[in-house]
Amino acid sequence: MHQLVPQKLVTVIASDVLEDRLIATVRNRGASGYTLVRARGAGSDGLQSGNLDADTNLMLKLILPPERVSGLLDDLEILNRKGYHLTVYVTDVLVMGHEKFERPMDI
Amino acid sequence: MSAFSNLLIPAVLFFALGFFARLIKSDLRFPPDLAKILSIYLLVSIGLHGGMELANANLGEALVAVIWALVLGLLLPVIGYALLIATRRVAPLDAAAIAAHYGSVSAGTFLTAIAFLGTQGVEYERYPLIMLAVMESPAIVVGLLLASWTRRRAVAGGSLRPADEGEPGNGGLGEILREAFTNGSVVLLVGSMLIGAIANPNALEALDPFTADIFMGMLCLFLLEMGLEAGRRFGDFRRVGLILGGFGVVMPLIGGVIGLLVGHFMLGFSVGGTTLVAVLGASASYIAVPPAMRLAIPEANPSLYLTLSLGVTFPFNVVFGIPIYHHLAVLLAGWT
After folding, report:
1. Looking at residue B50, which CATH number applies to its domain?
2. Which one of B22, B295, B308 makes the best mutation probe of the A interface by having the most chain A beta carbons within 10 Å?
3. How many domains does chain B have?
4. What domain range includes position B82?
5. DSSP of B77-100, one letter per residue?
6. Residue A106 forms part of a structural domain
7. Nearest CB to A55: which of B36, B297, B306?
């Protein structure tokens, strides 16, 4: 039987220009790592065609121990209040090799 | 020659093809990074070429051109902002973000103007190229100052709660200035100009197949892609409305006329050079300014400024604006 441990998966969809700021935030909030892909789509900010720097989105995914999620959400909420359009959702996941998610980022 | 002979330049026809392809809902698509690669190529080529020629330029004349470029970059956003506020249809922060686009410049429009002058056999001064590099950034700073002033007024008027976390720009004016002047396209254009100016001319000649021979073909591809992008944005025209759409045509005309006056009277340029300064005044940025505005004025709606700059002003300038500014420059030269 595999040992699977409950963790939280946080997904953030935001403008590509926020990359540096988002990564600094997740690092400060103790994420052990992240995965980022460029994305396109549409929403209340209009079309994000992904063809120009200004209309490319990013999708950032990270896995956090449940107790660290609330601090990260506080920071993301501040960004939302400043006017950035962030889509944020949190889901329950079961992860394999959970020790990996407790080590700090090595970059 | 007809005033609209501009329409028969291959680059402009490719722009129209891209636009048309979107209208008929063709599945024509460029790979996502191609537009970025093409604009890097165009900036490097034009920078190298301009640098080579500027190596022999008169420093005093170049300096005067730089000063006037700064004046245009600082003045045009303020005019744009005042016009937008006067329509009473635009939120002040949207107005600040849109205005910044109109003070900055579009290298794509500038290159189309060079192709136009080349087809007509019109000579032009090289100084507008330095002005192109200089004008990328100051308008960003003006846009941010306008936004910060708008926010302070809203707080004082009670319609906005003071943001306890500070302004979205986060780093104060120093950081904003650093971001505006280290923008990738500015670094690339100025860097290529420096390389063109100091490199061994014989060695640079070896680059000719890359920077000169294929240049117009690459410009065609770039404009094809921009046509697709403009066509995609043009569908959003409904969202911006008639008044704001009208601004996308009126503002380049105002900027173009101011550019004509500066080029002719202040800089003493020929018809070709004056046309290029008018194009600088008329064009709106769609590469450098939009990401800066997204970061620093998140309250503004990006679909407004992208649609205006890319879906309205860029096509207007490429198809109608350039021949109009050239025509006016000819009239101005004959008149005085």
Report:
1. 1.20.1530
2. B295
3. 1
4. 32-335
5. HHHHHHHHHHHT-S-HHHHHHHHH
6. no
7. B306
Do the chains contact at A46 and B295, CB–CB below 8 Å?
A: no
Cβ distance of A52 and B229 shorter than 8 Å: yes
Q: How large is the angle between the packed helices B34-54 and B215-234, nearest 10 degrees?
A: 130
Is residue A107 domain-resident? no
- CA pair distance B55, B49, nearest whole angstrom: 10
Count of residues making up chain A: 107
- Other Cβ atoms less than 10 A from the Cβ of B175: the count is 12
Is residue B13 domain-resident? no
Q: Which single residue is written with the structure tokens 């291959």?
A: B10
Which residues lie closer than 8 Å to A99 by C-beta, 6 or more apart? none
Q: Could you read off the pLDDT tens digit of each residue along chain B, which spans 336 residues?
A: 455 566 678 988 999 999 999 999 999 988 878 888 898 999 899 889 888 888 888 889 899 999 999 999 999 999 999 999 999 889 999 999 999 999 999 999 999 999 999 989 999 998 999 899 889 888 988 998 899 888 888 877 766 655 544 555 455 667 667 777 777 888 898 899 899 999 998 999 999 999 889 998 999 999 999 899 888 887 777 777 888 899 999 999 999 999 999 999 999 999 999 999 999 999 999 888 898 898 889 889 888 898 899 889 999 999 999 999 999 999 999 887
**Cβ of B35 and A55 within 8 Å?**
no
CA atoms of A38 and B116, how far apart (whole Å): 37
